Amino acid sequence: MASDNRQLLIEGARQLGIELEAAACDRLVLYLAELMKWSRRVNLIARDTPEAQAIDSHFLDSLALLPLLRASDGPAHLLDVGTGAGFPGLVLACVLTEARCTLVEPRQKRVSFLRHLVRTLGLTNIEVVADRIEPHAAAWLGRFSHVTSRAVAEPAVFLPLIRPLVTPETRIILMLAREEALAGIDQLPAGPWRLAARRDFVLPFSGAPRLLAVVHVR
User: What 3-state class would DSSP assign to 167?
Assistant: First the structure.
């Protein structure tokens, strides 16, 4: 089963234009095994999710951000807001070990899983913060090169939430499933916001449509 999952990860990533190194693939396969084990008793992903589906809808969906982080000037520092079981931040940290990742998650059971996984994988480029972002916004102003979230996907909610900690240099990656979510983005509160880039793709095995939009405050 692990070998099958490895092949799915390698093939799916390749379809996204990403070549996974052996060590990164090892970490992701172990990550998946721990996720499935913990999900039997902790609400991390939907119950009874097949491993192949988890690879497609969680791991590959997260890996799609990789080219955006690699394109940054200097080592990236990603803030993942409401990371849950580590998507996308922990997946990206498994592959892009030169980048730093700060994972923010207020739910304690999920924090326990994240910290267990960081220890199990031997990752040193991750900080797990067991809190919401609001108490840290002032101290974190300008700290991150990139900010993202899968849990708070609607721009109308997410962008005002993170506005206190971003500067014009911060790149915000919106993970969306539909084009309509970008409508009127330049009119949202706490802006003005500008769309800098977008990437449309489909998940390799399910064919589900996805959109990554990179925005920043002007």
Answer: coil
- The answer to whether 149 and 158 are in contact (CB under 8 A) is yes
CA 218 to chain centre: 24
3-state helix, strand, coil in the chain (%, to 5): 40, 20, 40
What is the side-by-side strand order in the sheet with 209-217? 126-129, 100-104, 77-81, 146-149, 171-176, 209-217, 193-202
Picking from 68, 58, 53, the residue whose alpha carbon sits closest to that of residue 18 is 68
Question: What single DSSP character describes residue 20?
Answer: P
Q: Going by DSSP bridges, is the β-strand pair 146-149/209-217 parallel, antiparallel, or unpaired?
A: unpaired
Topology (CATH level 3) of domain 2-217:
Rossmann fold (3.40.50)
Could you tell me the residue ranges of all domains in the chain? 2-217
pLDDT in tens, 54-100: 999 999 999 999 999 998 888 899 999 999 999 999 999 999 999 99
Task: Decide: pTM greater than 0.90.
Answer: yes
